[in-house]
Design goal:
The chain has 14 helices and no strands. By secondary structure, the protein is an all-alpha fold. α1 (9-31) packs across α7.
Length: 351
Amino acid sequence: MSTSTIKPFWLSRYDIVICFMIHFWIVLDALVIVPFSSTMILNSGADASQAGYLVSAYAIAAAITCLFTKGSPDIDREIKRIYVYLAGITLTTLLTAFVSDFNVLILCRVFAGFFGGALAVINLNYLIQISSEEKRKQNTAILLSSFPLALAVGVPSLIVLSSGSHWQLGFQIIGSALALIGILFFVSTRCITGDNSQELICSNDKTLLFAEALKNRDIRFSVMLAFSAVLGTFLVSTQFPVMLSVNLNISPKLLSSCYAISGILSFITMQYYGRIKMRDLTVGRVIILLSVVMAVSIVFGFRTENVDLAAIIFIAFVIASSTRTLILATELICSLPIQERIFLISLQNAL
């Protein structure tokens, strides 16, 4: 069996940046459709009520693809799959910018979701594979921190850049960035060579089936924990801004600032978490503390009548909830054996 060597540390840092940027632009491709959907619908001549189809087309396709995409312990295979999926999402995203027919737009977003979902799974698995045991948690945390950064910085930046022209520019920027990252990834992976002297691939390449995975107590617990964290965050984070808008009449500028501040601080928090060493007991205490902050934020945030105080509480909730979810995902992924971890990565991305 041919395996692959891990490159020197100074090159592995470069790989981390490339993997992070892949994830960042995948997330941005999925998120930017939300503010652009209404304009895209009007330009296509379709009914405004169908804007939700553009958003859900990518999300549903990506979620289903994540469930059926399994990472491999073979690094060479993962590199080739990243080539394919990265080329696919680049082409479909660029194509989105040059079509105006509503049905074709839906089709482009479905295929972009297919490639994006698969790429998210394989990219995370690849990064974990090339990471040393000591750096695995740190690199995973860095990669997952791309979500809040894309929401806080990426989406507003694309909106600003596209405001003077059309929504097409946003997808042209994303597609061009993905193409450039693809070139950089190709160059970086040329340094990986086959080597039978170092065993980086699990000796058992048997794929863990869904039914078999659910029989594993650790996986069942991990799935339930990840699902409850994502669901709890989603339910409140979607209702909180609605309450701020309807009950307290918060200004769009202040609400946008809340998202930007909370996203940037969540990114910084995850960077800090990934760089420090914490015992399992300490991690548990941090998760409990973040859960308490979330609960307190919900109680006081929905009761206060001061819009500025409610905005501050909303920022605290977003930071606590997103950080808790990402820490849980990182700890669960890094703590499981390779086959169980591969399964959880697929499910975590789908969630």
